[in-house]
Design a protein that fits this description.
Elements (H helix, E strand, L loop, with lengths): L1 E3 L7 H9 L7 H20 L4 E8 L2 E8 L4 E6 L3 H10 L4 E11 L5 E9 L7 E5 L2 E2 L3 H10 L7 E10 H10 L4 E9 L1 E2 L5 E2 L5 H6 L4
Length: 215
């Protein structure tokens, strides 16, 4: 299942407009905050899909029965670009356990590249709800590799993949190589992917925009 939040009119689209805007991107703090805001909105939408139970709450004047989530999800993100979105999701699921994956591109002289998972830290995942964050779903290869690496730590009941901007090619690749119990949450889906695997119009390098250029 694919949910595209930018397909409907909401304040979410204002944040997409700002992270894309070359005149706004010079403000890295604003870029990070907008990514965080979109993570919060997607977390709210994901919360509607969870299992709930009634809990009796004591107030100063009596008791009230409130429907609350039965359990918290596990939130995982691909470093470093995924961190602002991860924080937004964590703002809403503030008791969640967290996982982190370090993946990088190893470039070759012919212009091609391989993707390698270098580091993985995650709690046990069996029968949990997993939320996996990466703001840009370009080729989809790093997302698939990250998911496969996480599966070595257990099989989640359901996985929600959060990407602010995806390419149609990357989304198709991920859907083809991931199981059926996965829901994709995207802000927007762009049609073009360059030979260097950049999404067009996209927004550029999300990690650099959030945290500065890397060597």
């Amino acid at each position: 299942m694919v949910q595209i939040l930018g397909a409907n009119n909401s304040i979410f689209n204002q944040y997409i407009a700002e992270i894309r805007d070359v005149n706004v991107q010079n403000d890295s703090m604003r870029f990070r905050r907008n990514m965080e805001r979109m993570g919060e909105i997607i977390a709210y939408e994901i919360s509607k899909t969870l299992n709930y139970e009634l809990k009796e709450i004591t107030t100063p004047l009596g008791t009230a029965n409130v429907s609350v989530p039965q359990s918290q999800p596990v939130i995982a993100s691909i470093l470093r670009a995924g961190l602002p979105v991860h924080q937004g999701v964590l703002n809403y699921f503030d008791k969640a356990q967290n996982g982190f994956i370090s993946a990088y591109r190893r470039h070759h002289k012919d212009g091609s590249f391989d993707i390698h998972v270098e580091y993985l830290s995650t709690p046990e995942l069996n029968d949990k709800v997993l939320i996996l964050c990466d703001p840009m779903l370009a080729t989809g290869a790093s997302m698939v590799l990250a998911y496969q690496a996480l599966m070595k730590r257990g099989r989640p009941r359901h996985t929600h993949i959060v990407s602010v901007i995806a390419s149609s090619e990357g989304l198709d690749y991920a859907k083809k190589h991931l199981p059926e119990n996965v829901t994709f949450w995207c802000g927007a889906v762009d049609e073009e992917l360059t030979a260097q695997s950049y999404i067009v119009p996209g927004l550029g390098d999300a990690g650099d925009l959030a945290f500065g250029h890397k060597i």
